[in-house]
């Protein structure tokens, strides 16, 4: 059976799609935008096309996270976590495990669980197959949970809130380490240093610092060289051995991580107008190989 022109066109559009970007809004909406390759006048470019939209939350969408198998989770000021299947473009259900605004989300590498943090400082580990809360603990007493990062092994996690960074053993549900900082931590990511060793990057208002597990934040003289920005930092992601940092003035900085953790500017990009950006890795937004 031969395909009709319309079917062929849909197949070509699907093959041209290279990423799916999801965004939440202040009025509770969730939008999915497909990034497609296109050619115009012999030059390759990209086109953005909205492919789904949901009335996700009764309040503002505070956070989104992507997981294995097309999983997408959102958290909002209505204290709910909504789950979606981005491959089928449909809602899967919701989790009601918090009594405060959901401020941080991270899926485990297996896609079986969601780690969520709230404005009251509570963190919960929930299994998605039966919506059962496996672990629940008060992570940050002063202020809420700002961000969560799950280790690629799925056994450890980092959480930040009110100038405090905690490392969690997810197999036991216990805190393995606590580090204090003089500035509030806005984001944290697990990274690989130039020599292949593991570490983590913390983003503050105007500074990014890479640390190994053995580094002590109090010993300023022995710490790797940070990246310092004139503009406020809004988000970051780790991809292909580099940190990509988004700024509130609309610019981007690509940072190379040296073997000792020093950060070096590899390139900078300045968009046309100021904006607040939320960056995530290509795999998290559905980038196809």
Give a brief outline of the structure.
The protein has 289 residues and is mostly beta strands. 4% of the residues lie in helices and 52% in strands.
Task: Provide tags for this entry.
PAK1-Kinase_Regulator; Lipocalin; WD40/YVTN_repeat-like_dom_sf; 4% helix; Methylamine Dehydrogenase, Chain H; WD40_rpt; WD repeat; p21-activated protein kinase-interacting protein 1-like protein; 2 domains; 289 residues; mainly beta; single chain; 4-stranded antiparallel sheet
Q: Which secondary structure elements does this structure contain, and how are they paired or packed?
A:
Elements: H1 5-16, E1 17-24, E2 29-40, E3 43-55, E4 61-66, E5 71-76, E6 81-85, E7 90-95, E8 102-107, E9 113-118, E10 122-127, E11 132-138, E12 147-150, E13 156-161, E14 164-169, E15 174-180, E16 187-192, E17 198-203, E18 207-211, E19 227-228, E20 233-239, E21 242-247, E22 252-257, E23 263-269
Antiparallel strand pairs: 1-2, 2-3, 4-5, 5-6, 6-7, 8-9, 9-10, 10-11, 12-13, 13-14, 14-15, 16-17, 17-18, 18-19, 20-21, 21-22, 22-23
Pfam family, one: WD40
Protein name: p21-activated protein kinase-interacting protein 1-like protein
WD repeats: 95-136
Describe this structure in words.
With 289 residues, the chain is mainly beta. The chain folds into two domains: 60-180, Methylamine Dehydrogenase, Chain H (7 Propeller), CATH 2.130.10; 190-289, Beta Barrel (Lipocalin), CATH 2.40.128. It is 4% helix and 52% strand. It is built from one helix and 23 strands. The chain has one helix at 5-16; strands at residues 17-24, 29-40, 43-55, 61-66, 71-76, 81-85, 90-95, 102-107, 113-118, 122-127, 132-138, 147-150, 156-161, 164-169, 174-180, 187-192, 198-203, 207-211, 227-228, 233-239, 242-247, 252-257, 263-269. The strands form six sheets. It has a four-stranded antiparallel β-sheet, with no helix packed on it. Strands 8-9-10-11 form a four-stranded antiparallel β-sheet, with no helix packed on it. The protein has a four-stranded antiparallel β-sheet with strand order 12-13-14-15, with no helix packed on it. Strand 1 (17-24) and strand 2 form a beta hairpin. The longest helix has 12 residues, at 5-16. The radius of gyration is 20 Å and the shape is globular. The relative contact order is 0.09. The model is unreliable at 6-14 and 282-289 (pLDDT under 50).
């Amino acid at each position: 059976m031969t395909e009709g022109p319309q079917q062929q066109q849909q197949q070509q559009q699907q093959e041209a799609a290279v990423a799916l970007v999801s965004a939440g809004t202040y009025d509770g909406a969730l939008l999915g935008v497909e990034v497609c390759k296109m050619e115009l006048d012999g030059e390759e470019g990209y086109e953005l096309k909205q492919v789904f939209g949901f009335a996700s939350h009764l309040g503002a969408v505070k956070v989104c996270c992507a997981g294995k198998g097309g999983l997408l989770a959102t958290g909002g000021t209505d204290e709910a976590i909504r789950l979606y299947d981005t491959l089928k473009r449909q809602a899967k259900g919701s989790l009601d495990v918090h009594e405060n605004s959901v401020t941080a989300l991270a899926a485990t590498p297996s896609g079986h669980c969601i780690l969520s943090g709230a404005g009251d400082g509570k963190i919960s580990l929930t299994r998605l197959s039966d919506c059962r809360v496996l672990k629940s603990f008060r992570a940050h007493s002063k202020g809420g949970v700002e961000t969560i990062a799950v280790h690629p092994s799925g056994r450890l996690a980092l959480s930040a809130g009110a100038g405090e960074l905690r490392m969690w053993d997810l197999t036991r549900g216990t805190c393995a380490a606590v580090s204090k900082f003089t500035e509030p931590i806005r984001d944290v990511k697990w990274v690989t240093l130039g020599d292949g060793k593991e570490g983590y990057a913390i983003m503050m208002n105007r500074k990014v610092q890479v640390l190994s597990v053995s580094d002590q934040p109090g010993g300023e003289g022995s710490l790797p060289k940070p990246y310092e920005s004139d503009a406020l930092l809004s988000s970051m992601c780790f991809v292909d051995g580099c940190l990509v940092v988004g700024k509130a003035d609309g610019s981007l900085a690509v940072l190379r991580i040296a073997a000792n953790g020093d950060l070096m500017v590899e390139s900078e990009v300045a968009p046309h107008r100021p904006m607040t950006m939320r960056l995530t890795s290509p795999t998290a937004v559905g980038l196809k190989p």
